[in-house]
Amino acid sequence: MLLAGTVVADAETVIENGAVVVDGDRIVAVGDEAGLRERYPDHARREFGIVAPGTVGAHVHSVQSLGRGIADDAALLDWLNDHVLPMEAGLGADGMRLAAELGYLECIESGVTTVIDHLSVHHADQALAAAVDSGIRARAGKVLMDTNAPDGLSQETERALAESEALIWNYHGADDGRIRYAVTPRFAVTCTDECLRGCRDLADAYDGVRIHTHASENTDEIGVVEERTGKRNVAYLDEVGLTGEDVILAHCVHTDETEREIIAETGTHVTHCPSSNMKLASGIAPVEDYLARGVTVALGNDGPPCNNTLDPFTELKQASLLAKVDARDPTAVDAATAFRMATRNGAEAAGFEAVGALREEWKADVIGIDTDLTRATPIHDPVGHLVFAAHGDDVAFTMVDGAVLYDEADGGHRTLDAERIRREANAFDVPGVDA
């Protein structure tokens, strides 16, 4: 297939009248369209306003999708303990499968081709199976909680780790490596030392398994951890083994100088979730400082109850604007930096090779974006347009591993039954939500 248009190959490379040629699961050529049409005359041609790499949702909660809007205008720990965790505890296998399908449906039609997904304590297999069936690229894992957790979600440490290991056996490397596992403790507040150290041991036991958790999102959270351990959050996580190049820490809003040094020196990845942090009034993550230290900072939407969307373009814009306001500097987190965070940085955090840019021999994770819109007229800077003006519903085409998952001009979703999922989600009796 030959995908033609203005090609945004990466944050620095734009090819006007360009094309991307796909064979199998790989990109075989990127360049001027006229020349590529001569070289590949038998390839079916599709044209879009902009052709770009798929984005990476580097911290999402697909299984919270049925709770979109259930806890607006609430503080983080109240939001979590009074609303979101009770909802997760009440979801059975069917509800968890439906929630994950709804989340992946939104991601795919919004241009997200890879997710780092923080699932739940129970029925994580249902979400992982949904990821397999959807065609999305995913790094995902079951949540571990062995202390300070509500009824229905707390597990004995050994059982939580054993269930995680079973999921690694069943799903890590599924579909030729498109699905990879992350050991996923919820956060230090709900995990004992034994659990967190066990997570490190489990990740070390299997090649390519990563660790994904929340850290330093909120000052109340940090206070709880400090009271229990005598250490600030990231320093404590480092002590129990939860830092390193195979670790993705979501949020990291409130870190001190020592913690930032730890993150940088250990190669730990940070996922910035600007919309969630603003909505929950958690604060502003020191993104410019992290980037200056060489930290890989990716972008995530977090969950639908605290955003309330999985549209990646929302986070692109908010990440840039929030940094500018925080620094009182209009050059902070410029468009190219934000775009890199949403693509290549996210792929690096997720641990996927040859993903996050349009390059020869890289994976064919490609999106086509409609620009036949008043909002897209004129476009002087395609990267700036994607960051500051584009919306998820501008995405007309989504491909992962060379497979078309969504094609607006040809029936919409190819792998998920969108009509059924939306119908069932609307009718679903969400636990803890009044009818």
Write a compact overview of the structure shown:
The chain has 435 residues and is an alpha/beta fold. The chain has helices spanning 33-39, 76-90, 93-109, 124-134, 157-171, 174-177, 193-205, 219-229, 233-239, 257-266, 274-279, 287-292, 312-327, 335-342, 344-350, 382-388, 418-427; strands at 2-10, 13-23, 26-32, 45-53, 55-60, 112-118, 137-141, 143-144, 179-185, 210-215, 247-251, 269-272, 297-299, 366-369, 395-400, 403-407, 412-413. A hairpin with a 2-residue loop joins strand 15 (395-400) and strand 16 (403-407).
Features:
9-stranded parallel sheet, 435 residues, alpha/beta, 8-stranded mixed sheet
Explain what the structure shows.
This protein is an alpha/beta fold and 435 residues long. 39% of the residues lie in helices and 23% in strands. The chain has 17 helices and 17 strands. The protein is globular. The N and C termini lie far apart (47 Å). The model has no long low-confidence stretch (mean pLDDT 96).
SSE topology:
Layout: E1 2-10, E2 13-23, E3 26-32, H1 33-39, E4 45-53, E5 55-60, H2 76-90, H3 93-109, E6 112-118, H4 124-134, E7 137-141, E8 143-144, H5 157-171, H6 174-177, E9 179-185, H7 193-205, E10 210-215, H8 219-229, H9 233-239, E11 247-251, H10 257-266, E12 269-272, H11 274-279, H12 287-292, E13 297-299, H13 312-327, H14 335-342, H15 344-350, E14 366-369, H16 382-388, E15 395-400, E16 403-407, E17 412-413, H17 418-427
Parallel strand pairs: 1-4, 5-6, 6-7, 7-9, 8-9, 9-10, 10-11, 11-12, 12-13
Antiparallel strand pairs: 1-2, 2-3, 4-14, 14-15, 15-16, 16-17
